[in-house]
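Form 12-C: Joint structure prediction
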Amino acid sequence: MRTLIKNGMVIDTASNYEAVCDIYIEGGIIKDVGKKLDYECNELIDCKGLYVIPGMVDMHCHLREPGFEYKETIETGVLSAAAGGFTSIACMPNTSPVIDNQSVVKYIKDKADSLGMINVFPIGCITKGQKGAELAEIGELKFAGAAAISDDGKPVSNSQVMRRALQYAKMFEMTVISHCEDYNLADDGVINEGFVSTSLGLKGIPREAEEVMVARDIILAEHTKCPVHIAHVSTKGSVEIIRDAKKRNVKVTAETCPHYFSLTDEASVGFNTLAKVNPPLRTREDVDAIIQGLVDGTIDVIATDHAPHHIDDKNVEFNNAAFGMVGFETALPLALTYLVHSGHLTYKQLVEKMCYNPSRILGLNRGTITVGKTADITIFNPNEEVVIDVNSFKTKGRNSPFHGMKLKGRVYYTIASGKVI
Amino acid sequence: MKLHSKDLLGIKDLTKEEINLIIKTAQTMKFIIGSNNKKTPHLTGKSVVTLFYENSTRTRLSFELAAKYMGANAAHVAASSSSVAKGESLIDTGKTIEAMGTDVIVMRHPMSGAPHLMAENVKASVVNAGDGMNEHPTQALLDMLTIMERKRKIEGLKVAIVGDIYHSRVARSDTYALLKLGAEVSTAAPETLMPPEFEKMGVKVFNSVHEAILDADVIIALRIQMERQKQGLFPTIREYAKFFGIDENRLRLAKEDVLVLHPGPVNRGVELSSSVIDGSHSGINEQVTNGLAVRMAILYLLTRRNKGIENSD
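Section 2 - Result
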């Protein structure tokens, strides 16, 4: 298979490239990048007026299979991710059974590979059964194909266990992702603690619940000299703690999600369960700090935390509603609208946060348009207006607070290993 | 004049005019409560179901009698003994009750927003009889009626709300009502029982009961739940009573003719001393009677609204 991508605005952070040019792909590998390329090909993609970037990498999503196929399957998740422009996704281990051993990793990889679409990298558990007590078989998880480990929504509370996990995982160059939440401080809260929680009479989750554990994990990373990746940063305080740590050269990286730079807790007014997510949507002050963190490099990655749920999980009392929202198919237009078109980030920075950095942190050797690399490419029109419609989503989840919203940015092609999906 | 919504979910959604309409209607209902023949045709042929997911004696009884005094058919569903215990969803329960011809569902639920979810999913009127920490609108309305009767007005009054404000739906509903009617509201609670940013509601926030009740025309004391102590929110009931309880001595800080209210049931000697509860300043027994009147008024106004009869009064 030979493919020629013509006339697109190619943006690549790794090679610091930003120009209208062509890309030639053969056998799934990028063979040439340059002006006015002339190759014989079976497929010609004219990208006049479109932007061409490395295939986007989502390092934080939930595919629900095995165990919760009524919410999402690997197939619907992959279709949704591809529709959103992602060529590689890393799925969290809170399935049933959880991904705490090599057989579950292999099950997911086999299923995803048989679809022949995009790359799926399972994230294994840090501890057996996600219970926070004994380490999972991290070495075997690595060799089975897990890209990272995380206990995600059930963070490791015991600091000694976390410390040993960082030390042990480093031996296998396994990325450790930490969902930072102190259980006692979160205390079954359902929404950000503040005026909105007060006026709705809902129990709040204070910012401290996140920040205390961000600080802990940074202290552990600093002393053990092991890297740690902080998942879905939502507060101003977390941004400041991470910024300070980076100044001290602590090996910490961090991600945020589109909803943390586009929405505030006001979205929950009227008991809107679609805006219920963990960590919770915060306030304007936090949103501004998150954007600043993205601008100055404190936050390395934009991940989706795509969390599909069935309508029966959301159409219930606010306290009983599941946390989370779908994200694959809204991530790029949200990032373009709230970060690029608003003048906060350049396209190069966007590529860094959504392609290059997540690939680098997970060690995937992707996320760049460079000769010799795998041809994972996303092509979009950044200026085309889209109205978000959950009924047109490929994911099974309809749980998006962005339904009906007018945004800018439409994905035209998702190309994984040279194949248009 | 009519209520604009089919439901009564909270004071937050009511206009000043609607609050006054309910109070005025309730005043006329008091004649029925005091009469020898407690049966009127206001709700003849209507069906009212009380659906309680939390224990309650006075609110439930008050709604049931309100419905019955006005000729409605009233039935009660206690969530613990129903299909809810078998895992039925709130919406399914509501639709089942509605399918039996129910006109009004009176609902109490431990989770904030549950009546709102119900109201969106049924055509029947939903009356919030208390949802989580959010609102308890009929309690606020009966408090307003009681204040109005004693003080002849609400505008310009200094009202102090004292107690566990964090967990109190009464505090929120009273605050909305008092501010809409032009009163000045001061609040006092231990810092651990004060909701974050409560001052943004438009009230004064104190940690000292003395400051809150200074020159007050009305004091609303809130019930302290014993389990809050076990959650580590304050050390002991004894210490709470010492710093936040109101006895005759403390009451002297307020105006001479101060009115003391409490949503009940009272922990004697904790929120209020027995001498205050049983003394001349107390409006606690009037609150109970007024609660019935307010609930009659609400059932009447909501069912009249549903029927679409335009009354030009």
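Section 3 - Comments
Chain B has a mean pLDDT of 94. The first helix of chain B runs from residue 16 to 34.
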